[in-house]
Amino acid sequence: MANVFAGIKSIDQSSGKTAGLKKVTKDMQTWRKDYKPEGATPTPAAPAAAKKPATPVKITKPAVCEERNGNWQIEYQTGPEPLTVSGINMKQQVYIFGCEGATILLEGKAKNIVFDSCKKTKLIFDNAVSSIEIVNCKGVQVQCKGVVPSVAIDKTDGCLVYISWEGREVQFVTSKSSEMNVAFPQGAGSDDYVEKPIPEQFVHKITDDLSISSDAIELTPPTLVVVEEQPTPVEDPPGPRTLISLEQLEQVHAAASAAERAERLTSALGVQHYPVNPRTCVWVDFCFGVLNFARDEAHLPPEKALALLTLAHEVYTFATDPFSINGDSSVSKISEPVPQNAESHEDAETAPVTTIPTPEIRVDPDAYPSVEAVYEQFHEKIRQASGVVSENDKAQDTETPSLPTPFSPMEVARIVTFFTSTFFRHLRAYQYVSRVQRSNIVRECPLPIETPLPPPSLADATLQTE
């Protein structure tokens, strides 16, 4: 340790690094009480307070009311004194901007009016050719003495629109706005106005045709209406009777497999001899395909699916019944009498079966309706199911009852496409095969006879030892 201190002392400090330093004596050490100067220590000055930002001075722009390039420009109007602008014609547009607490009167019929960024301002005008637009306003009132076709309200909070009795057919287009109300007289020449709120909330739903439907939510409670109970009608409601019920349709759709669905549909249709009757087999398969289309492709509700099944049955009956042209098509020959020995397959295997041949009645193919006649029948049925009444029906019967579940235009298009690609395509091919005479072609071909090869001789055989 002594060597260390000796080494420190031996360091040469004459290089000038400490030459300018002065030794601090005790009287220079102010922290000692003995050497503190007498008297109060001066208090350090407080930091200067930060200046508050000056309140921005509201710049008042000069009011403008002049005609520029054939249009009227009204800006920055204030005060309770009304401003009247007269002589406005149908080729002029009126633009009102930045007014606050003002009252503006427009005399004449303007092309269109724009009411932009105004507060607590009243606007009264006679007529407008196209529309009036209310944009970025707060607490404004607009009155139309005559007629304006459209009122557009955008980004506005608080707006009251007065409409005359002549202009009550006006339409409102609103977006991003609140506290909107419309007032209109109770009748022609009445001074009593009825004020109604414009809906601000909507309920949106996805429909079956993959579109969006929107319904407005009323802000005021609906008026209580007392409806007298009507007596139950004795007659059946208008519309076609369905082949199966809703409960039976649900049971068919609830089946686990396609085979089970076909069995349940057969039972619901009342067919007991489906496997042995080819005509009934085609009918049941056709009904099965119609129900699959209604559920998987058209996405129809159960009521419309049953209506489509009934329509398909009537068209099928008309096409397959040769007597449906001049007779009733409600009953077809899709069901045939079946002998008792054909009711069960198990009984047919155990007990002997006695088959009684019945004479087959052949019908001329020309007795069946043509494809064009069947399509006309289908067109008439789908027109009635869609709720469309022709001019002839209107002239004959003005009180024709409509179906309870008419098809929409989109559903009608899908149904027509389905029937065209399936039913009418097969019907045209079937009628072509049965009606067009084809010549018999007989071809005689010689039957080649091959001579088998002779067996090998026994001399060439070899014996194998086990």
UniProtKB/TrEMBL annotation:
Sequence ranges of Low complexity compositional bias: 40-53
Region annotated Disordered, chain positions: 34-53, 330-351, 386-406
MF GO annotations: actin binding; adenylate cyclase binding
Any one GO biological process: cAMP-mediated signaling
Regions crossing the membrane: none
Pfam families found in the cross-reference section: CAP_C (PF08603), CLAMP (PF14769)
Domain C-CAP/cofactor C-like: 62-200
GO CC term, one of those recorded: cytoplasm
Matching SMART domains: CARP
InterPro entries assigned: Adenylate_cyclase-assoc_CAP, Adenylate_cyclase-assoc_CAP_C, C-CAP_CF_C-like, CAP/MinC_C, CAP_C_sf, CARP_motif, CLAMP
Coiled coil regions in record: none
Family to which the UniProt record says this protein belongs: Belongs to the CAP family.
Record-given protein name: C-CAP/cofactor C-like domain-containing protein
Species name: Phytophthora nicotianae (Potato buckeye rot agent)
